[in-house]
Write a structure and sequence with these properties.
This protein is of the alpha/beta class. The chain is built from 9 helices and 11 strands. It has helices at residues 20-39, 42-47, 71-77, 112-129, 156-168, 181-190, 210-219, 259-283, 296-311, and strands at residues 6-8, 54-59, 81-85, 92-98, 133-139, 148-153, 196-201, 221-228, 240-245, 251-255, 286-291.
Length: 312
């Protein structure tokens, strides 16, 4: 077991999960209503990428966005033409969800799984409120196959079912080291129509998933949401600590007063971070890095602004 496989052990027990209705009610009041107001024009930037299907060309109108002008056609026709995309119609979004043991790491009140559920519920509600449909794939990592697929739907009841299934997804205390390739491959072979695909994971995985990510992004508009906890990057100096491999359950005591150990831990984490960033860049995928200690509204608005900036 190497240093980069280790994470500080999370708090032992958690209170009973709230109901889907209470989760959605909390998010409606605390997050979703505020995002609807804050995003407004940026809503399109968040949900519609440059990869959405091209539909048609038409002459430029004064209210059109100049970024959609097709300059080649404009030069040939000697009058401005703009591209139209299928983004003007209903879209389908898919959530590819990594629910392996490592997503249970974090503080009792804000572990990575809770952040994942809040993010999925928020985006699913935003999308369906605007007439779109959402589906999901659950991957726990124990069988090497997707555990569950929820067909796309567009109602509030559908969103509640998605939250309910997430709450009921078994939490494995032990599993083989996660490999994200089966989840990405399942998305590639299951989602036929061009869609918006959110891959939500901590991306702590065996190598080799990078190629599947690139193939998926070639066919769909893929957004990676990387959920992480600051203690996975830098150990606090708190003395003797029990550390546990989140995937295998192997444990060992370490002295976090030891500066050399903390340095090795940080270097291993930085190396892992660099490899993941390289994979995203190579695949051309937009990434939202979502910390367990970051405000969800601020993170989503920041991500929408980055998406908008990339199109300019």
């Amino acid at each position: 077991m190497s240093t980069h496989d280790l994470s500080p052990t999370a708090t032992q027990s958690a209170p009973a999960s709230p109901t889907p209705e209470r989760i959605l009610q909390r998010l409606d009041w605390q997050v979703i209503r505020r995002l609807d107001g804050l995003l407004q024009g940026n809503y399109r930037s968040l949900f519609y990428g440059q990869g959405i299907d091209f539909a048609d060309l038409r002459e430029y109108q004064p209210e059109d966005d100049v970024r959609y002008i097709d300059w080649n056609v404009t030069a040939r026709m000697d009058t401005p033409y703009v591209r139209q995309y299928v983004e003007d119609r209903e879209i389908t979004a898919w959530f590819l969800l990594d629910l392996s043991p490592s997503v249970d790491f974090g503080a009792l009140e804000n572990h990575k799984r809770k952040v994942l559920i809040d993010f999925v519920a928020t985006l699913a509600r935003l999308l369906t409120r605007h007439g779109n449909r959402v589906g999901a794939m659950f991957y726990g990592g124990s069988t090497g196959m997707v555990d569950r697929t929820i067909a796309a739907g567009g109602s509030k009841l559908h969103v509640l079912r998605l939250i309910n299934d997430l709450l009921k997804q078994p939490r494995l205390t032990r599993a083989p080291f996660t490999n994200l390739t089966p989840l990405l491959s399942a998305g590639l072979h299951t989602v036929r129509r061009r869609s918006l695909v959110f891959i939500i994971s901590d991306f702590i995985s065996a190598p080799g998933w990078e190629r599947s990510l690139a193939l998926l992004n070639h066919r769909h508009d893929v957004l990676a949401v990387r959920i992480w906890d600051p203690r996975e990057i830098e150990l606090p100096d708190i003395g003797l600590m029990l550390m546990e491999d989140a995937e295998t359950g192997e444990q060992m005591y370490v002295d976090t007063h030891d500066k050399k150990f903390r340095k090795r831990f940080a270097e291993a984490a930085q190396k892992r971070e660099a490899a993941v960033r390289t994979a995203f860049t190579s695949a051309g995928v937009d990434v939202l890095s979502l910390s367990t200690e970051e405000d969800l509204i601020r993170a989503i608005v920041r991500f929408a602004a980055l998406r908008e900036a990339r199109k300019k």
